[in-house]
Request: fold
Amino acid sequence: MKRLLATLAIGAMAATALAGCAQSAADSGHRSIKVAYQKFGTFTQMDAQMKAVKAQYEAANPQVTVDLVSIQASENDYYTKLSLMNRSAATAPDVLYEDTSLIQSDADAGYLAPLDDYASKWGDWSQFPDNAKKAGSGSDGKLYGISMGTDTRALWYNKDLLKRAGVTVPWEPKNWKDIVDAAEKIKAAEPGVIPINIYSGKGLGEASVMQGLEMLLYGTDNTLFDTEANKWITGSKGFIDSLGMIKDVYQGGLAPTPQEALDPNFGTTLTSDLVPNGKVAIFLDGSWQSGTWLASGALSWPEWTTALGQAPMPTQNGQKPGTTSMSGGWTLAMGSKSQNKDDAWNFIQLALNQKNSKAYAIAASQIPVRDDVSKDPEFIASNPTAEFFAGLVAVTHFRPANSNYSQVSNLIQVAMESVMTGQQSPAEAAKAYDAGLKDAVGADLVMPAK
Amino acid sequence: MSPSQLLVTRPRGRTVRPRASGFGRSALRSTPLVPALILLALFLLAPIVSSFYGSFTDSALTGGAAQGSTFIGLKNYAKLFSNPDFYKSIWLTILFLVGSAIVGQNVLGLGLALLMQTSNRIIRSVVGTLVVSSWVLPEIVAAFAAYAFFHNKGTLNAMLGSVGITGPDWLYALPMIAIILANVWRGTAFSMLVYTAALSDVPQDVNESAEMDGAGGVKRLVYITLPIIRQTISTNLMLTTLQTLSAFTIIYVMTGGGPGTNSSTLPVLAYQEAFKFSQLGLGTAIATILLLIGAVFSVIYIRALKPGVD
Reply:
């Protein structure tokens, strides 16, 4: 009994002591904000940018400490870790680097704080065009994220490899068949070279969906989502054809082997090794890729400007408007559990002012959203592809703005993986996707393709 | 060591009963156990109960359900039982369990223990060190070692290549074989240690008299050794089964459950549903099923080998 009392007494003392600690920290008047973002493989630009902004911010606000939480994880794991952090007030970040496709579901989850009141008082807000403002809004119409920049996607190719295989450069494919034909020629002429890379499968996460399947699907007569009816589309021919293209390149030996492509590190391998070393001829990829090869990037490769060409992604049969692209983009958002919301907003405002936005757009090869950055001569001169990729904005598509998107994205990854590994035919995988879609979003939110 | 030893060496014929006492007295006497019971309930029982409850909700990592989950009855289970991947996953889990734990670790562990019993000291210590070294590695290190060994350009295929055989891409073409072998490699040491301890309890005189009656090695193993260490076999089967059912790191590191779903055992599937697809409720439903499978196997072992009966 005595021992029990002693134990209880020690416990009580410890509790008092801990409470005391918490008290003294709050009293000192010193505040801190936590900024969470991704740092993975060759994507180091955000880390560099946040370090620079932290230094500026702390110099101007000595009473606030900025804690940088760089989450070293692949894209899917980054989302998971962020969600887990957001669940508890003790770990939730004040400022977070948030993909536009996740804003709706994370806002619905109550993880994000609305920013309308802050933005309306921000002088710079007029520099953001309407579509950039819309990219950060949730399903309730409130603003949850401030756009950092956008991007487009297209075909990149190695000029030398295409020339040697007998493909005319500059290469201008008019439909999917032209792409497959070029890849076949490269396969015949250059063994040891990957003819074409289209990201696919669960390993690469959202990159497979957006740079892969959606770049194909949005060039057919179908889409993923009917924006008028606000419903997800099942049983579309375009979806089966897109999976068919994945099957053709992977099972036809035109793409990386499925085991290479399913490695979560494959994206890093591609941009840091395969492309600079001339091991891949064509790759369907994003406008930001050149950021890796700039002098400030993870792997300086100045020859990329002459070695690589870019071609818009053609539609399936060349149907109007002839080319297609997908756009996404990332935002800075504020955590709803933040204790220091004003400090968090000041940080976002500083990180996205003209000077910092321009620095990030140049370093990360972003298509800037601020008018005063996209018209800035220094930005225009910084990257020879800036004009090409900005031009694709005219034909680009955005991902369905729906809070179920992340779940649908996962279903697409599963369908792609089962097709590329030969476990299912495109029709079977599309059927499994349709069934999964009904489960994930509910039968009343799906509709058959017209 | 193993519970069987405790049973064997327990003093017999002397049962100590507490003096007859009133309820108040026994309650007072068990008071010192209360803190321990509270801790057990808090850290062992509570997670199971909360996971069990979670499997009946639509709890999610993101989206509206993350704000507050609602009770949805058996919907998660209905969803699972209508998903062909789930049945494939159960089959793969049982294949992994039988291949790597029940057959691999137990048979190999017992075999090694028997061989070491009759071998000399040098061989015993060399083999013992080699086997145990894979077991003392942290799981993540062992998993990466196995990944490097079975990788397409890894140690195994390099060794096969040096004798002119082109090995398959183990992790891609034969993922189940690769993870089963890796788990056998990692887990055999435990069974070997348990069986070594149990074999030292087999009375030498029984064996000798059987030998004099003309029983050969196999007969002595089947009729003398195995029945005597029956309780250890049961305990060891149960422990390795439960350990293997929950194996996640080694599979996730080596194959990630792929290619496709070809090595997605239940723990990998649960992780995928809960943390990749953000559906915590569905993930915990899979965990509950895993719990049931473990319980079924435990009951089978206890019934079949009757560890409590001497």
Observations:
- Chain B has one domain: 79-305.
